[in-house]
Design a protein that fits this description.
EC 3.1.3.41; about 260 residues; Rossmann fold; alpha/beta; 2 domains; 5-stranded parallel beta sheet
Length: about 260
């Protein structure tokens, strides 16, 4: 079993602690794939950017932590100088020529200084610095029944502003799925993707041809997608093979 999340704000170590707090002490770090980790892997294994290179971060601490574990030097991110009011004379706006990639993910510290500084890196040298987007999720279910903005709006804001495409390292990216299948030695035709959002989780499994001819996607109706969404499917790649009310119902069926 592997756990895959488009949340780039928390590192694998943070998720291990969270699982442990919930009573799941057997969950190992190697089975957890947040997009902050997949971003670091793409920089290392696909883009072949040398260790000790600097990477500009628009996002939270999870991205910084995973970059450090892969041997990179994160810039931006949680730097307190980015929390200040807009100042065109701020030294942080001066481009660091040693930055070799930009990672954009979700952050609750969104402000103009972060936006403007990130734009400088995405436009420098004729837009040649690699642009990695942590995910395309538009929203996520928050506390007290609220629906909150996820990382997708921030990634797409940078993409639109700079007129650039990005490397998507989150679901439904095939890059991420192939990494998981290889790492975990899963049989593609015997693997089931369980998730609560059709355009990321279910598309992730369908595009990756999980489950073979029988299909390998199970939609849980307790999150991003609801029963009504199943009646208005325009993109067949987002259609689940199976659906269920909650994971609790799945456990009942497996007994």
């Amino acid at each position: 079993m592997a756990f895959v999340t488009n949340n780039s704000s928390k590192s694998r170590n943070t998720y291990v602690r969270k699982f442990s707090d919930l009573g799941f002490e057997h969950i190992e770090k190697s089975a957890i794939y947040p997009t902050c980790y997949s971003a670091a892997l793409v920089i290392k294994e696909q883009l072949k950017i040398p260790p000790q290179s600097k990477v500009w971060v628009f996002g939270d601490e999870g991205i910084e932590q995973e970059l450090k574990e892969c041997g990179y030097i994160p810039c931006g991110g949680s730097d307190p100088s980015l929390d200040s009011e807009w100042d065109p004379d701020s030294p942080i706006l001066k481009i660091d020529q040693e930055v070799k990639a930009v990672v954009v993910g979700s952050t609750k510290k969104l402000n103009y200084m972060r936006l403007a500084t990130t734009v400088q890196y995405l436009l420098v040298d004729e837009k040649s610095i690699p642009f990695i987007g942590a995910n395309i999720d538009t929203t996520y279910p928050g506390p007290k029944g609220m629906i909150l903005p996820a990382g997708g709006p921030m990634v797409n804001l940078m993409s639109y502003t700079c007129g650039r495409d990005f490397i998507n390292v989150g679901k439904p990216s095939g890059l991420l799925l192939n990494t998981i299948l290889q790492d975990q030695k899963f049989d593609r035709e015997r693997t089931l993707m369980v998730g609560d959002t059709m355009y990321t989780d279910i598309k992730f499994g369908n595009d990756g041809k999980l489950g073979g001819k029988n299909g390998g996607t199970l939609l849980v109706l307790s999150g991003g997608s609801k029963l009504g969404d199943l009646k208005n499917i325009e993109d067949k790649s987002t259609e689940p093979q199976y659906y269920i009310e909650s994971l609790g119902h799945l456990f009942d069926l497996l007994k």
